[in-house]
Amino acid sequence: MGNVEIGKFCTSTNNAKTEKHCTSTNNAKTEKHCTSTNNAKTEKQCTSTNNAKTEKHCTSTNNAKTEKHCTSTNNAKTEKHCTSTNNAKTEKHCTSTNNAKTEKHCTSTNNAKTEKHCTSTNNAHWTQGKH
After folding, report:
1. What pLDDT is attached to residue 115?
2. Looking at residue 5, what DSSP letter applies?
3. Which residue, 40, 68, 96, sits at the end of a domain?
4. Which of 44, 50, 60, 115 yields a CA-CA distance of 20 to 30 A from 87?
């Protein structure tokens, strides 16, 4: 505990940077196959909560941006094969609720705009598959 940098197959807490196959908590940056909580940035096959940015094959909650094959809640933007709730914008093969805009193969409820192959309820604008 309390180290600035650790590498390879470590368990660390409250470090500035942890790398490769680590379990870390409250670090500024964690990379590759880590489980992290409350980090500013987590990357690649991580499970993260309350991070500013999470990328690739992550499960994240309350992040500003989540990308690719994620499950996210309350994010500003979620992309590609996600399940999102209360996001400003969700895209491609998502299940979304209460989003401003949802696109392509979504199931949406109470969205301002839904597009293409969606099931929508109480939307201001529908573009295909109207009920």
Report:
1. 42
2. E
3. 68
4. 44
For residue 103, give the amino acid letter. Answer: E
Structure tokens at 41: 């940035």
> What are 78-113's pLDDT values in tens digits?
444 344 444 444 444 444 444 444 444 344 444 444
Clarify whether residues 5 and 63 are in a common domain: yes
* Single-letter amino acid code for the residue at 78: T
What pTM value is reported for the model? 0.12
112 plus 92 within the same structural domain: yes
122 in any annotated domain: yes
Q: What is the pLDDT of residue 122?
A: 39
Give CA separation, 104 vs 32, 81, 93, 128, 129, in Å.
30, 11, 6, 10, 11
98 Cβ neighbours under 8 A, 6+ residues apart? 85, 86, 109, 110, 111
